[in-house]
């Protein structure tokens, strides 16, 4: 059974958001994400292939409430700007043609010092911790598993000939190896990030 000349693009949503926000100096929109999809489809190895689907992996924004450990003020996660921005992005992507949003979950796992506060402390610009320096510690769960399962399904069911993986997560290497063993071409795009582990590059057929 031959492979159809089709390509699936799989985006690790958290990785993509961080990379796009760094490049654009603002929170990304659905149009920003789709612009990257169009860029990928215009690349030489892909331009002759039919798009099967774009898979965007993320988690619904955190809801619920918690009490801040320093200010002792209640925090409603669903009322934050972070919630609103992420909810709008997901809602906009869901209605894009040929896009499927795959969801994991978010879990609140306590509190931590925010990155900007850590940098200020290291640089000597700050000597004490204030309530605004303490931020929720949130962990995403189930996203890597969904990406891996979809890669396996695409390969074993012969749904596409090519996969483009947009990520910096080396936990996906086993799924990449499976896809290549099954005969798929696996391309990697890191959205310009240089801090990806060598394993990802080694087990991709080509970087885009």
Description:
This protein has 208 residues and is α/β, with parallel strands linked by helices. Helix content is 36%, strand content 28%. The chain is built from seven helices and nine strands. The chain has helices spanning 13-24, 30-41, 81-94, 115-122, 143-156, 173-181, 198-202, and strands at 6-12, 50-59, 65-67, 74-76, 99-113, 134-141, 162-166, 185-189, 206-207. The strands form two sheets. Strands 6-5-2-1-7-8-9 form a seven-stranded mixed beta sheet, sandwiched between helices. Strands 3-4 form a two-stranded antiparallel ribbon. Helix 2 crosses helix 3 (81-94) and helix 5 runs parallel beside helix 6 (173-181). The model has no long low-confidence stretch (mean pLDDT 90).
């Amino acid at each position: 059974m031959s492979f159809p000349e089709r390509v699936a693009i799989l985006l690790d949503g958290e990785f993509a958001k961080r990379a796009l926000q760094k490049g654009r100096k603002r929170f990304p929109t659905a149009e920003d994400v789709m612009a990257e999809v169009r860029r990928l489809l215009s690349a030489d190895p892909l331009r002759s292939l039919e798009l099967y689907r774009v898979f965007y992996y993320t988690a619904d924004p955190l809801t619920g409430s918690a009490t801040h450990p320093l200010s002792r003020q209640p925090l409603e996660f669903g009322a934050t700007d972070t919630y609103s921005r992420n909810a709008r992005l997901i809602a906009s992507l869901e209605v894009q043609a040929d896009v499927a949003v795959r969801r994991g979950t978010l879990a609140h796992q306590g509190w931590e010092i925010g990155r900007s506060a850590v940098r200020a402390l290291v640089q000597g610009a700050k000597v004490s911790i204030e309530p605004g320096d303490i931020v929720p510690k949130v962990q995403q769960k189930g996203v890597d598993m969904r990406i891996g399962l979809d890669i396996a399904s695409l390969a074993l069911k012969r749904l596409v000939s090519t996969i483009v993986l947009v990520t910096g997560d080396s936990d996906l290497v086993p799924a990449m190896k499976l896809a290549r063993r099954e005969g798929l071409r696996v391309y990697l795009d890191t959205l310009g990030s240089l801090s990806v582990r060598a394993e990802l590059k080694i087990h991709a057929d080509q970087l885009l």
